[in-house]
Amino acid sequence: MKWGLIQKSPTFLAVGFHSFFHPYSEYSIGLPYGAISFGQDNRLNLFAGKFIPLDEKHESSPLLLAASLQARAGPHTRVMCELWHWQVTEREHHYDYQTYSSYYTEKKRSVIPMIVGVRFFGKQLAAELGLMYSLTGEWEGPIGFPLVNFVYNFGD
Predict the structure, then answer these.
(1) How many CB atoms neighbour CB 116 within 10 A?
(2) H-run or E-run covering 15
(3) Which residue, among 110, 13, 116, has the nearest Cα to 63 in the 3D structure?
(4) Strands 11-21 and 28-38
(5) Which residue pairs from 132-140 have beta carbons closer than 8 angstroms and sit at least 24 positions apart in sequence?
(6) Model pTM?
(7) What span, in angstroms and rounded, lies between the C-alpha atoms of 97 and 31?
(8) How many CB atoms neighbour CB 130 within 10 A?
(9) At 128, which helix (H) or strand (E)?
């Protein structure tokens, strides 16, 4: 869902909410966000949001920052490339056999996926088809992780 707050070309400002569901896991997250776009046919988009788990099992995640470039390929089509960035905290369990005690260490690391794809859009509905690649090694595979996204704009 997206609400367009300012939609005067060449600048667009919006707030919205994405939800991500994994088909083989109970883990789902929400992502409230704000976005600003510059340009008409070719666009630069800047995006900031915060991951929020939609269950009680997981803690809140950090801030997400993203930037994308889009180039018009047709009257209702754009090709796009997005870079996302967030940090995760990994907890590692250790056991000291001399003192018979356990402890945890925490390490922060960056997650940087890149999404390349096509956006099809109408007046209020957009659909994105793309592939997500990890620039920091979270996923392995020759073709990337498929991504399908639909956005309905409740603005003017």
Answers:
(1) 14
(2) strand 11-21
(3) 110
(4) antiparallel
(5) 135/83, 136/109, 136/110, 136/111, 136/112, 138/111, 138/113
(6) 0.71
(7) 42
(8) 21
(9) strand 125-134
Which amino acid makes up residue 66?
A: A
Per-residue pLDDT tens digits for 137-154 = 766 666 678 888 888 877
Distance between CA atoms of 46 and 9, rounded to whole angstroms?
16
Q: From residue 12, give the alpha-carbon distance in Å to each of 6, 40, 88, 105, 155.
A: 5, 9, 30, 43, 11
Distance between CA 128 and CA 149 in Å, rounded?
A: 5
Tens digits of per-residue pLDDT, 116-129? 999 998 888 989 99
The rounded distance, in Å, linking the Cα atoms of 144 and 117 is: 11
